[in-house]
Design brief:
The protein is mainly alpha-helical and 521 residues long. It has 4 domains: 140 residues, no CATH class; 85 residues, Zinc Finger, Delta Prime, domain 3; 139 residues, no CATH class; 106 residues, Zinc Finger, Delta Prime, domain 3 (Up-down Bundle), CATH 1.20.272. Helix content is 65%, strand content 0%. The protein contains 25 helices and no strands. Helix 4 packs antiparallel against helix 7 and helix 6 crosses helix 23.
Length: 521
């Protein structure tokens, strides 16, 4: 027996053998998978049984990726397995430090959920779309040679609160190695402990990507498995560490002092979340209060409501409705803001409304799974962020009229669902945002079944590029629609219709090839 065969060498050889069996010898030779990569030292991050698929996502030339994915499906590899491998490849390559990279990671779970809403023949489309984007960016980043994450060792596990303080302090000192070792130690306890600790570090600032990244990483654990919690959450830690090097204003740092003060003033550290629901009217009124407040005022109002026993999810619903208003009232990009793929008047991509809605959705979901301290913090900071978002990019959101406007509503004479769906599609394909919003509103007003309208909007969320946000925003809008009060839920369909009309006309790279390979065109 060769006793010099290390565990890593063994796993590497097993992984290579599995990948050879999966992609074939000729393809493997083309991809140079038959020899150990020169950059793979003892510190390389290895994903064991998932390693062959992970490496396929990193090393396959993007012009060969989609045929390779089709072969995977035909060999009984599931879409879930493909998404999991892509997420791990993304994390290992970018580590939360590449703009397109981390946006792509955040789109993976939404794309997988979208696949479950489609007929089986079309289910792979949204997944293939994002996997194509993922591998293309990995190749641009240098493939395995550009990897950011490597193996990290942690000590004994720490309690989540104490560990969270230690992690936050390491992040504040911009010490990436210490922060990653601290997280690795906490993750030895449980995925939940690691998540709680990351939230404590993340709460220092409410910048949108800092907020959404940990939620999407946590959401991915249902796909990749909780054993990969450290890998997925490290991306947020590195993002936060990197953010410490940026120039910051006192206003941007306000949550660092505001949150602990409010938790103490309202004695929330000794409370458990309440369950009281004051009703529809209260939610609307509180949403309007948040919309008109400063960040500090909105946070204080949320803290007071929590102390009064209002359920955190009721507050989160009000936050979500306020963010929705930013989509409905947005006047669109100004000429100075125009960039490729996002023309004047558009509201898709990184618009303030889309960003605010994705953040509100993340805060709401994090509050649902967090322990009391971080549940309260998520509700408070969600309120804070939506109030700040209203003024973050200027504009007069207080006075701008939300869609739909009366003129467009008056022009819609159809009442049948079929006719309204045709009008909605015509408006989308004509980039008529206001009309698309009006048709969606009328459709809901008529009491028609939501699924056919969402099927239409889903089709374009899959086909269009969406400037990195189509999948997340579709998931945000459809999820908020599904769990909000009946009296307010159609606002989310209206917002989604508007954004869909804005993004139409820029097909996603790889989508035509995917349709052809799946025999859908």
């Amino acid at each position: 027996m060769n006793t010099s065969l290390t565990r890593r060498t063994f796993l590497t050889q097993v992984s290579q053998g599995m990948l050879l069996a999966t992609v074939g010898l000729e393809t493997a030779a083309d991809l140079r998978l038959t020899a150990k990569p020169q950059d793979e030292g003892e510190g390389a991050l290895d994903f064991g049984p998932r390693e062959p698929l992970v490496r396929l996502m990193q090393e396959t030339p993007v012009d060969r990726l989609l045929p390779a994915l089709v072969r995977q499906l035909r060999s009984d590899v599931s879409l879930k397995d493909l998404v999991a491998a892509a997420a791990l490849a993304n994390a290992r390559t970018f580590g939360g430090e590449d703009y397109v990279g981390f946006h792509t990671m955040m789109a993976l779970a939404p794309a997988f959920y979208m696949s479950q809403e489609l007929p089986s023949s079309q289910a792979a489309l949204p997944v293939f779309k994002v996997l194509y984007r993922n591998t293309a960016r990995i190749q641009e980043h240098g493939g395995r040679k550009g990897e950011v994450l490597h193996a990290v060792e942690g000590g004994a596990g720490s309690a989540s609160v104490e560990g969270g303080v230690a992690l936050r302090d390491a992040v504040r000192s911009a010490d990436a190695q210490k922060a990653e070792r601290t997280l690795a130690s906490i993750a030895r306890g449980s995925a939940e402990d690691a998540f709680e600790a990351v939230l404590m570090a993340m709460h220092d600032h409410t910048e949108v990507h800092r907020v959404v990244l940990p939620y999407r990483a946590w959401d991915m654990l249902g796909i990749v498995g909780k054993e990969h919690a450290n890998t997925m959450l490290r991306q947020s830690v590195r993002y936060c560490v990197k953010a410490e090097s940026y120039s910051r204003s006192a206003a941007g740092d306000e949550p660092r002092t505001l949150l602990p003060r409010l938790l103490e003033e309202h004695h929330l550290m000794s409370k458990t979340p309440g369950t009281r629901d004051p009703g529809d009217g209260w939610v609307q009124e509180f949403s309007e209060t948040l919309f008109k407040s400063t960040g500090a005022q909105a946070a204080a109002a949320a803290a007071a409501a929590l102390a009064d026993g209002i359920a955190p999810d009721v507050i989160a619903e009000a936050v979500s409705l306020a963010a929705n208003q930013l989509v409905l009232r947005d006047q669109g990009r100004l000429p100075r803001e125009e960039v490729a793929g996002k023309p004047v008047g558009s509201v898709h991509g990184d618009s303030i409304g889309v960003h605010a809605s994705d953040s509100a959705n993340a805060w709401r979901n994090m509050a649902k799974v967090a322990r009391p301290r971080n549940c309260f913090a998520s509700a408070i900071l969600g309120a804070y962020q939506v109030a700040v978002d209203r003024t973050a990019r200027g504009g007069d959101f207080d006075h701008w009229q939300p869609l739909p406007i009366e003129r467009h509503l008056s022009e819609i004479k159809s009442t049948s669902p079929e006719a309204l769906l045709r009008e909605a599609e015509e408006a989308i394909r004509g980039n008529l945002q206001a009309k698309a919003a009006a048709v969606a509103h009328r459709y809901g007003q008529q009491g028609h079944a939501p699924r056919p309208l969402f099927d239409l909007l889903l089709r374009y969320a899959v086909s269009e590029d969406g400037s990195l946000h189509a999948e997340k925003f579709y998931r945000t809008a459809s999820e908020e629609f599904g769990r909000s009060r009946a009296v307010y839920r159609w606002r989310y369909a209206v917002a989604l219709a508007r954004v869909t009309a804005s993004e139409y006309g820029r097909p996603a790279p790889g989508i035509a090839e995917a349709r052809s390979l799946l025999q859908l065109s």
